[in-house]
Automatic annotation (TrEMBL):
Lineage: Bacteria, Bacillati, Actinomycetota, Actinomycetes, Streptosporangiales
Annotated signal sequence range: 1-21
Signal listed as a keyword: yes
Assigned keywords, A-Z: Acyltransferase, Cell shape, Cell wall biogenesis/degradation, Peptidoglycan synthesis, Signal, Transferase
Pathway participation: Cell wall biogenesis; peptidoglycan biosynthesis
Organism: Nonomuraea purpurea
KW 4Fe-4S (keyword) present: no
Protein name (Swiss-Prot/TrEMBL): L,D-transpeptidase
Amino acid sequence: MNRVPRMLPALVALVTATACAAESVPVPQAAAPVVKAAAVKISATETPQPTQTPSATAKKPKLGIADITPMGEKTEKVGVGFPIIVTFDRDVKDRAAVEALLEVKAERQVEGAWRWVSERKVIYRTKTYWKPHQKVLFTARLSQLPGNTAAKDVSRRFAVGTSNISVVDTRKHQMKVYRDGKIAKKIPISAGKGGLMKNGVDVYLTTSGVHLTMGKKAVETMTSGWLGVTDPKDPRYYKEEIPWAVRISDSGEYVHQSAGYYQYLGRSNQSHGCVRATPAGAKWFYTIAQRGDVVKITGTKRKLDWRNGWSYWQLNWTQWKKGSAL
């Protein structure tokens, strides 16, 4: 229900075929300022690396890191599906050399791999979900890159929280939420009703696939602007303040409180593509939601594209690894 959020040019066509989206431009991959420090042990003790010589630090680094997502352990806890997204400050010419200097260590290690999605951005995803309730350490030793000795090594430690995995059945109109493997709540929902074709895509259908939560707002303004409808006199026009909105894609899909129409919850699909929930259910889900939580949606003919938001689990493990430079 909104204008198209800013993202890679390759995704513009994908995102314009949106579901329901917000009026404000989302920043789903926002992160805290890069921590330019030496590698950190996963224990509470931090051990700095030897300082570089004055001759090395006097030189200008040819490659640095502009952003790391998600934020560090002191700022947020993340879900078991979370990706590590690293954005460099310029195009990476030797991807293999740089990738070899990126390290991920977890207290409860699982297999993972990097995938390059642009000239400056690389994403780490695990083969299976992270184990909950642990710490994960990311380290980039860019000072070891030939000709880049002036760069500072960078590290960030993440805190994995509770395993929140939600399964949305659009045919049974129900969302089941599992916390650490146990069913915690069943919430009546109403998903996308379908019936509006744009460029061969029914944009009123909710996308089926493995979504990740990307952010949340207690109140989100949703409008018909994404349809090109901005005239209040148009019968298709709407502008609503929607409570308990948890974003699950770049194309504007949310799990949120239904704005009325409670008679359809648990009975039929009537939304513009979002997952509408009861007031109590939506508020509860909003409260527990962490970025990187898993939301599996089933039952629709519209498939989620792996480039739509953080939908990287849409690729199988073999496909994912093909994006590595190593």
